[in-house]
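Help needed: design a sequence for this.
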């Protein structure tokens, strides 16, 4: 959640982002 929140905080808290 830490990574996704930093990259796609406006999308979802469970978004898989590198």
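Sure. Designed sequence:
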């Amino acid at each position: 959640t830490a990574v996704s929140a930093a990259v796609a905080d406006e999308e979802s808290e469970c978004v898989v982002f590198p």
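The two ends are 12 Å apart (CA to CA).
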